[in-house]
Amino acid sequence: MGIRQHIKQWFLPLAAAGLVSLTGLAQAQETLKVGLVAALSGQSAKSGEAITRGLTIAIDEINASGGILGRQVELLRRDDESNPNKGLLAARELVQKEDVAVLFGGLDTPVSLAIVPLANRMEFPFMGVWAAGTPITHNGAEENYVFRVSAVDELVDEALVQYGIDQYDMKNPGMILINNPWGESNEKGFRKALESRDMEWAGIERFEGGDTDVVPQLSRLKDSGADALLMVANVAPSAQVVKSLDRMDWDVPVISHWGPAGGRFSELAGENADKVHFIQTFTFVEDQQGKGADVMAKLKARYPEIQTLADVTPAVGIANAYDAMHLTALAIEKAGSTEGPAIRQGYYGIDRHEGLIKTYQSPFSPDKHDAVGPDDYVFTHFVDGRIVPLDF
Question: Does the UniProt entry include the keyword Transport (predicted)?
Answer without folding.
Answer: yes
